Prior knowledge:
Elements: H1 2-37, E1 41-42, H2 51-54, H3 64-74, E2 77-82, E3 85-90, H4 93-101, E4 107-109, H5 113-119, H6 129-142, H7 145-164, E5 172-174, H8 175-192, H9 199-212, H10 226-252, H11 264-271, H12 275-306, H13 309-325, H14 333-340, H15 343-355, E6 360-365, E7 369-371, E8 374-376, E9 381-385, H16 386-390, H17 410-417, H18 433-450, E10 451-455, E11 462-463, E12 467-468, E13 474-479
Parallel strand pairs: 1-2, 3-9
Antiparallel strand pairs: 2-3, 4-6, 5-13, 6-9, 7-8, 10-13, 11-12
Helix pairs in contact: 7-8, 7-18, 8-12, 9-10, 10-12, 12-15, 12-18
Protein name: Steroid 22-alpha-hydroxylase protein
Amino acid sequence: MFSMLSLALVLIIFVVLVSVLVVVLKNNEKSKDEANKLPPGYIGLPFIGETFAFLKPHSPTILGEFMDHHMARFGKIFTAKVLGTKTVISADVELNRFVLKNDKKIFEEGWPSSFATLIGKKSISMLAGDDHKRLRSIIFNFLNGDRLRTAFLDDAEQVISFLLSSWNDGPVISAKDEAMKFSFYIMMKEMLDVDPGEPEIEKLMREYNDFIKGVAVFPLNIPGTSYWKALKSREKILGIFRRKVEERKRINGDENLRKERDDLLNWLMKNTTNGFEEIGDTLLHTLFGGHDTTSRAICLLLYFLDGCPKAIQQLRAEHLQVIKIKEDRENKLIMITYTCIHYWQKVINETLRLGNIAGFLHKKARREIEFKGYVIPQGCTVITHLSAVHLDPNLFENPNHFDPWRWMGLISDVNKMKNFMPFGGGPRQCPGAELARMEMMVFLHHLLLNYSWELAEPDHPITLPFVEFPKGLPVKIKPVPHK
């Protein structure tokens, strides 16, 4: 009887093992089929993959070794392991458009968890569905065109006047420092109604500088690392925001102190129902999007124009013409310039195209997708490489050359705008796009009318992956006499 039981047990074990083996083989075959349908590529080292090669510094006006090598070997759509995740990287304009157009429907945000932790899980970039729609509506209404052309422009005018008063202290300025102060002061005014020069701004700026250094590094949360310091700075920044909220509540509760403020904090306190976490994350994300990228774009603008005297000449002539025509409306000069001059828009377009402030975006597929014969599995991260589109010679002639005139003409604009994605696209396009353009215009306007400039010493932008000028872009300025 024991033998019969033993035989039966052996048979059962055998059947189970065969069944498991069949399932494993089927799954392996399925994985193999899926792998064969994935875009070709190279995974690299375990966990790390090709992260360091992908993030290797290079000029923003070129694609760099990683993209050049992989595109030459695998084509414009390929697979790589980046930040511990198997990722499809797209330099294909059609796939990039498809991803951006179908954001929220087929795709969602795919930023690494380390970035989400820093920027805030309740920030607009990390939310989806109704929460994202609601918060986006608040920010878009706050940044509406009428406000940009009135209150925002007036505040930007005051900020640039504040900065100009210090430029006469020496013939050389750090364009990086001045651009950062300019955009930071504007954001503080619009977000918290804090004026330039107040001590609280300087404290916030110091903490923010430590915060941003940890955004684009390998996320090691170990004391002393840049990522660890960034997390600590995030806590301190949110602490300042929390005190502002409590102060605003106290003031609003006292009829003698109550003052209606038209800043982002006030808008969020009136329209947000998810408490301080959403308010704090939204303020921090807005500062990140509205300050950091804009200040870098301003530096690139000066850098490119320094090598294109013809563009400076045309810009200055148009701005002087507006002054001559509207000299009796000096207080509305910026408003007039913003609405009447068109060439500056071409210059800014070209700066954003060639400078590639936001070189790529992370998305994640909500379901399995077939595109050009490839399969992108559900849950797979997709990096839409915007720089690769902007620097594609099939889309932009002589793409590594600064040429604002490529944007002249309505037909030219329409054709090129389809492939122009400096602020992303689709339902998640950056809500601060027009604010960034306005800030660039105001800075350029005052520089053109008050100074001539040239680089004090050679300095070139490097993508780390954010654009940096190693020397701070030292610029020699010389006051232009007013006629």
